[in-house]
Structure formats: C-alpha cells, structure tokens
Amino acid sequence: MRSLDDIREEYEFLEGDERYRLLIELGRDLEEMPDALKTDATLVRGCSAAVWVYPTGEGDKLHFLADSNAAITKGIVALVIAAVQDRPAVEVAQMDVTAALEPFDLKNQLSSNRTQGVPNMIALVQEHAQRIAAQ
C-alpha cells in the first residue's frame, strides 16, 4: 500500500474526474478482504455504501482489511487505511487521522453522502488502536 504522503502528492496534481479515478484505483489496490469477513460485526455504521473494516495486525502493529461495495467509497476507505496501516497502535491511538486527510479536501471534492461515514471509520480504527495500545 502506498503511503498517504505519496498519494497526497499525486492527488494534488490532479483535478476533477482524475481525482475520482485515483480514488477508484486506490480502492482496487486494497488488500483483498475475504467475503467471510464481511459481516454485520465488521460493517461500519453511517456509511451510504456498505463498508467493512477488519483488524488483522499482530503485536502492537496495526493492519486492516477493508472493502466497500462502491468504487469511490472504497477509495476513501483506502485513504483512511493508508493513514494508519502497519503503524504502531500507540501512534495511531494518538494520531489526528482527520487532520491527516484534510489535504484531500474530501468534503468539497465529494458529495456529503460519500463522506458521511468517514468519521465512523476513523473512530473504529482509533478505538481498535487504543485497545491494542492499552494491552
């Protein structure tokens, strides 16, 4: 998975539809999430499309599998995951993921329907990080 900084660099050079294409590409590049993990327990609430996030990390390093049934939403999921993937739980627990995503200006680039679940995704990831960090 590409780093959030690498993605941001490319994103800043693009406009309009090219940004949508990049998001779709990022979603396609997500690690495959088995259908068996796409359950009610892994479903992120509040998203206009179905979004699933499942933690798989070992030790204190976080790793997530994620998927969505909508291409652009899956790209947004990929951005959130890129911000935290394979980082120490302590770091993610204290991280301002929302601020890390601000350069993408998602609220102005996408409809509110597409971004309404982002805070819930971030909360889910950070709650998991806090549980791991506390162990």
TrEMBL record:
Pfam families: SufE (PF02657). Residues 15-127 form the Fe-S metabolism associated domain. It comes from the Bacteria. SUPFAM superfamilies: SufE/NifU (SSF82649). Belongs to the SufE family. This is SufE family protein. It comes from Alteriqipengyuania abyssalis.
